[in-house]
Design a protein that fits this description.
Helices cover 43% and strands 11% of the residues. The chain is an alpha/beta fold. The strands form two sheets. It has a four-stranded parallel β-sheet, sandwiched between helices. It has a two-stranded antiparallel sheet with strand order 5-6. Helix 3 links the parallel strand 3 and strand 4. The protein is globular and about 50 Å long.
C-alpha cells in the first residue's frame, strides 16, 4: 500500500471543500493541502501567471513526496492542467471534469449555469467539456465578468431576499463588503466586477 499523501492546492481556502470530500471517500489517505493565499485571487490574473503559480505549487507539493495532486482551483484547472501534466511525472487531476459530469447527471432541462472567475470563464473549459460529453447541449456563453457592480449587488440582494437569507450583523451591507472585497477589486469607482462573487458563509444565516 502506498502510504504517501495526496497533494491538493488552491488559490485560497476554498479547496478545503475538496479535501473534505476526499476525507469522506478515502478516510485512510493522508493529505497535504497548500492554499496560495499570498497571491489570491487567481481568477483575475493571466493564463501565463496562473500556470507559473500552479507549477510552483506542484513543485512544493512534490517536495512533500505526494503520490498524486488534485488542482482544487477552478481557474488553474481550466487554464493550466494540460501544462502541469506535460511538465510533471505524477498523476494530476482537476475539478472541471467532475463538475461537468455531475452537472450533466443532475440537469433535467439540458441547461447548465457556470459561476466562475473571469479566468475560468475566458478559458471556455466548462463549455468545451460539456459539449464534448453531450453534443446535444447548447452552450451560449454569457460573460458577465465586467457587468456593472451595482447591478450585481442588486441581483445578489434580490436572491438573498428570495432565499430568506439575511446578514448575521444587521449593520453589514453588500455595499460595505464590496468596498473591501476582492469580489469588486476594492474599487467602486470603476464599477466593474473583477472577480466572481464568493461571499463567505459566515456573513449569512438563513431564516
Amino acid at each position: 500500500m502506498d502510504t504517501r499523501p495526496i497533494g491538493v492546492f488552491d488559490s485560497g481556502v476554498g479547496g478545503l471543500t475538496v479535501v473534505k470530500q476526499i476525507m469522506k471517500v478515502m478516510p485512510h489517505e493522508n493529505i497535504v493541502y497548500f492554499g496560495d493565499t499570498a497571491r489570491v485571487p487567481y481568477g483575475t490574473k493571466s493564463k501565463e501567471a496562473v500556470t507559473k503559480y500552479s507549477k510552483q505549487n506542484v513543485r512544493f507539493l512534490l517536495s512533500k513526496e505526494v503520490k498524486a495532486i488534485i488542482v482544487a482551483c477552478n481557474t488553474a484547472s481550466s487554464n493550466s492542467l494540460d501544462a502541469l501534466r506535460e511538465t510533471f511525472d505524477v498523476p494530476i487531476f482537476g475539478v472541471v471534469v467532475p463538475g461537468v459530469e455531475e452537472a450533466l447527471r443532475s440537469t433535467k432541462n439540458k441547461k447548465i449555469g457556470v459561476i466562475g472567475t473571469p479566468g475560468t470563464v475566458r478559458s471556455g473549459a466548462y463549455e468545451r467539456m460539456i459539449c464534448e460529453q453531450d453534443s446535444e447541449m447548447l452552450s451560449p456563453t454569457t460573460n458577465k465578468a465586467s457587468m456593472d457592480a451595482q447591478e450585481m449587488l442588486n441581483d445578489l440582494a434580490a436572491w438573498m431576499e428570495e432565499s430568506g437569507i439575511e446578514f448575521k450583523d444587521p449593520h453589514l451591507t453588500l455595499e460595505a463588503i464590496a468596498r473591501t472585497s476582492p469580489v469588486f477589486g476594492g474599487n467602486q469607482n470603476e464599477k466593474t466586477v473583477t472577480y466572481a462573487v464568493n461571499m463567505q458563509l459566515k456573513y449569512f444565516y438563513k431564516k
